[in-house]
């Protein structure tokens, strides 16, 4: 086994992960898939004395809607949830939420992990099983009955021969597929997050990962809104923005930092930037936008709108996605070629099940019921694709 990476493992988009996990999805296939991955995370946490700090605070889905029946209808019956309504329970259990929140769906099987620690632990297991690592960039793949990979990196160019290859190149998955003469139905969308020191203690340290499901208009002054509306590049900020603003404390009960995110960007790119800190990728207005959005359902954050945090980290990474926001895992239309790709914003939580599914496919083992749905075979299933195209929610956070 040989792992080829042009960078240090976990140093590109994975380093920008929100590090959350949940089994809530608006489709049975993704629920079963992530449940299997969380089972693996539980097993690895027990095996390693929880080296990657797995918490189990759940997900808090907050809304101002008077009924959540439509949302609940998308949640499989066996997912463990609590539904809290206005009138005491919400403010008693989740006091940081805005008083106009009418309903909260608490997804119990969720929380966060240290993705970097998990990655390092799995790399150790990989090495112990005889796996080797090679730093280099794949520049071409020739099919000569077996695959011949050309690499550049430190020292002279190299050639690696392989009978089986797995394309797990993250945002560059389609670049590698192109070397095999294939084009995958994926897109890259750059999404951003911020983390900052919560010196005002605005967010309770025991607050679960909390998401505002509602679309919203940001709280601009009349003059600000008028100025935005007059600027063609910024006019979108004067109008309603999608739901999905999210927040959680970072660093455990004794930490002082919080993370905020909002996957509102819809601009896609085929080729990602090599430098994630490049000014063409990072939007300098994002910190203000996400803090304003989060303050709409976590009022104590309003103080950071008027007086922005001085110690903060602004970062981003690529959501490599299919239109339906499902991954592509399994065989490619080439002998001995496989793929794990399009893990969007759920790579950390789904990585264990994704790797297990791909390995089972390669080895010819028994596959789970969702295997076809998560492979390229789903695009031949007209009924499934029609259903996914009509879905109101794709589980994007």
Please characterize this protein's 3D structure.
With 397 residues, the protein is an alpha+beta fold. It has two domains: 2-14 and 116-185 and 324-390, FAD/NAD(P)-binding domain; 27-114 and 187-321, D-Amino Acid Oxidase, subunit A, domain 2 (D-Amino Acid Oxidase, Chain A, domain 2), CATH 3.30.9. 25% of the residues lie in helices and 24% in strands. The protein has ten helices and 19 strands. It has helices at 28-47, 69-72, 89-93, 115-128, 173-179, 222-229, 286-295, 302-306, 347-363, 382-390, and strands spanning 2-5, 20-22, 59-63, 81-85, 103-107, 110-112, 132-135, 137-143, 147-152, 158-162, 165-167, 187-197, 209-212, 245-250, 257-261, 268-269, 312-321, 328-331, 337-341. The mean pLDDT is 93.
């Amino acid at each position: 086994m040989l792992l080829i990476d042009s960078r240090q493992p976990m140093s590109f988009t994975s380093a920008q992960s929100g590090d959350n996990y949940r089994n809530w999805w608006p489709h049975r296939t993704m629920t079963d898939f992530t449940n299997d991955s969380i089972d693996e995370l539980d097993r690895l946490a027990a095996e390693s004395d929880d080296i990657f700090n797995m918490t189990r605070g759940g997900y808090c889905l907050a809304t101002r809607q008077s009924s959540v029946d439509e949302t609940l209808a998308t949640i499989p019956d066996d997912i463990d949830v609590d539904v809290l309504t206005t009138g005491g329970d919400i403010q008693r259990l989740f006091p940081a939420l805005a008083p106009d929140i009418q309903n909260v769906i608490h997804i119990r099987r969720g929380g966060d992990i240290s993705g970097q620690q998990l990655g390092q632990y799995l790399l150790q297991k990989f090495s112990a099983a005889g796996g080797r690592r090679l730093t280099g960039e794949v520049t071409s793949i020739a099919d000569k009955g077996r695959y011949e990979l050309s690499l550049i990196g430190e020292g002279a160019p190299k050639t690696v021969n392989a009978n089986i290859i797995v394309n797990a190149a993250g945002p560059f998955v389609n670049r590698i597929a192109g070397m095999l003469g294939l084009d995958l139905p994926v897109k890259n969308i750059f999404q951003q997050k911020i983390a900052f020191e919560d010196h005002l203690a605005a967010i309770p340290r025991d607050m679960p990962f909390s998401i505002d499901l509602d679309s919203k208009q940001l709280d601009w002054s009349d003059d600000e809104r008028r100025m935005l509306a007059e600027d063609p590049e910024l006019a979108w900020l004067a109008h309603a923005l999608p739901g999905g603003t999210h927040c959680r404390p970072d660093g455990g009960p004794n930490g002082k930092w919080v993370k905020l995110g909002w996957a509102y960007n819809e601009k896609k790119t085929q080729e990602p930037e090599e430098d994630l800190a490049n000014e063409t990728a990072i939007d300098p207005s994002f910190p203000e936008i996400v803090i304003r959005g989060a303050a709409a359902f976590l009022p104590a954050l309003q103080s950071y709108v008027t007086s922005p945090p001085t110690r903060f980290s602004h970062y981003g990474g690529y959501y490599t996605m299919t239109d339906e926001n499902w991954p592509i895992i399994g065989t490619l239309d080439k002998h001995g070629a496989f793929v794990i790709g399009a893990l969007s914003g759920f790579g950390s939580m789904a990585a264990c099940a994704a790797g297990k599914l791909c390995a089972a496919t390669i080895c010819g083992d028994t596959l789970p019921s969702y295997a076809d749905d998560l492979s390229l075979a789903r695009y031949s299933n007209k009924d499934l694709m029609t259903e996914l195209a009509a879905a109101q929610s794709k589980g994007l956070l």
